Amino acid sequence: MGVVGAGAVGLAVAWRCAQRGLRVSVYDDRPGSGASHVAAGMLSPVAEAYFGEHKLTALLVESAARWPGFAAELAEASGVDPGYRTEGTLVVGLTADDLAEAGRLWSYQQGLGLPITPLRPSALRDREPALATRVRGGAVAPGDHQVDPRRLVAALRVAAERAGVVFRPARVGALSEVDAAVTVVAAGCGAAALTGLPVRPVKGQVLRLRAPGGGPPGFRHVIRGYADGEPVYLVPRAGGEVVVGATVEERADTEVTAGGVLRLLRAAVELVPELTEYELVEAVAGLRPATPDNAPLIGALPGRPGVLAATGHHRHGIVLTPVTADLVTELIVTGEPDPALAPFTPDRFPKEPRWN
Amino acid sequence: MGVVGAGAVGLAVAWRCAQRGLRVSVYDDRPGSGASHVAAGMLSPVAEAYFGEHKLTALLVESAARWPGFAAELAEASGVDPGYRTEGTLVVGLTADDLAEAGRLWSYQQGLGLPITPLRPSALRDREPALATRVRGGAVAPGDHQVDPRRLVAALRVAAERAGVVFRPARVGALSEVDAAVTVVAAGCGAAALTGLPVRPVKGQVLRLRAPGGGPPGFRHVIRGYADGEPVYLVPRAGGEVVVGATVEERADTEVTAGGVLRLLRAAVELVPELTEYELVEAVAGLRPATPDNAPLIGALPGRPGVLAATGHHRHGIVLTPVTADLVTELIVTGEPDPALAPFTPDRFPKEPRWN
């Protein structure tokens, strides 16, 4: 079989399939250079549970539940630590308006029975003294974890190679170039041109900061917040890095703009003032593969025998990596789609209008 | 003779001396990598005329007057355009407070007889429609020009080589390593360790933006302003680049920080809103070689026969390049210091306390 795309999803599909005895080739001229390179790596089924997205939320919850085992097995198989951390996530509102807006969402998430608990400002700052004194309130989502996507890709690559996967450093311009009975298209935004699926790029700008003095950051939780209406997240890594993200722009370029960086830095510093002293190490933009309903496209392509899609993961590619890999592998090995895939079939959109 | 340091000042001294028939070697393991690489290139004798710095102001005015001829001769000698532009400078205040603070300085500059003329907001925006409508007022300094320091260094290097200057890619750890009867120390902040002179680093962070679509920026004047108390300048280049500077920090590291970038971007966007759409191409920090009285150190070192200093130019290295090169060359060729150098002799500070 062939996998087009060596991001997190493509590599995990390749690894899982090779574990089941399949001969797998992965095609990518720039492995790991797409959305996986930019992603922050939040595993947030709760904080990413939005109004009206019940089926997507269920998939996020299912995949997040697989993450501890997936991370442990991957670290064992590759010898590379993917940076999985379980300190949980604080969600906060800077102003009364921010808190009111965020509170509506938290109530919805609580109503779904998801693990999220409101905290008073004093309780928030007990957990993270680095939070600005201005922060009006928040909540804790203890099950919303994180992983380092760049380490994840490196670990998946080693694990896949050890399982026998062959890497072909070629750009695939058409699926006919893939010499395999079964082809999985995990090409992110590139899937649109390869398959005609309604995948469109949604640009995200992301910063990487580094704590001064070579130490770890001054906070351990993932912090997601609204700061004067601006959504922002801060993901601390053990090595001192803090990922600050992300803009959401309906654009297809990958330019880092003055306005994007300004919005991210302003919101980040308002929530955690000590970040002013951090080094700005990197500013980069990537393209999320988005679909009309924000949910991924996983399963067989209609009218294209032997071609499967595993793309369109939008903001959720990293958290959905384990479940996507498992379900695609089962589909290939057994020929039968798991019922869990029913809401995510690639043929669920009308042909017209085109979205990309 | 030997010149230690291949920044703008060192290269210009070497070029001028070689033109007078001297055999010149320039020592630098990383030519053009110091303050010249970071500098914005404003040639601002008027806007940089601060209270109580009459003698420095006179030197700035003298050097700025030499710039047109210097730039033309350099372009001719090197075949490299150093990017000298004469559209002039607008100085502006965003808020009433900013305007009040800036207005005191402009009145002082007018009182010295320098060419600076207040403009009403409508007249400001007639000249530069890109200015924010919030800008409360400003002035024009038509004689404050600009040059591109990176092009300047490239041009000086070619001109110096064509004049016979030899480049030695070596780091000079002590002046005894320089095999010459006369040595000019133009090593920026490195001069402190080489000579014991009171030169200290003053960190500056600078951004480079690029106009969208490959065109030139949406404004032609250099714009200097105060935005909610934050001083900032914007230098537009013909090729589409806009230099945004600069922080002033009493620190010796060259880290780009989240807080520094945030302050620059916020002030820049407040003065010229269209900059939000510009690409952020580069963020870099450099170290200005500053002295206790903000004026340069030019002339013979006391007790060190054959050693001259040409350093300590602080914020004014690029504008002072022509006059520094001319006066140092005259001093070496004739043995007599020009009276204009009297305020800038390296021995004007007491030995104690040490400043570096």
Automatic annotation (TrEMBL), chains A, B:
It catalyses: glycine + O2 + H2O = glyoxylate + H2O2 + NH4(+). Residues 3-331 form the FAD dependent oxidoreductase domain. One of its GO terms (biological process) is thiamine biosynthetic process. It comes from Micromonospora robiginosa. Pathway: Cofactor biosynthesis; thiamine diphosphate biosynthesis. Its EC number is 1.4.3.19. Keywords: Oxidoreductase, Thiamine biosynthesis. The keyword Oxidoreductase applies. It is an enzyme of class 1 (oxidoreductase). GO terms for cellular component: cytoplasm. This is glycine oxidase. One of its GO terms (molecular function) is glycine oxidase activity. It comes from the Bacteria.
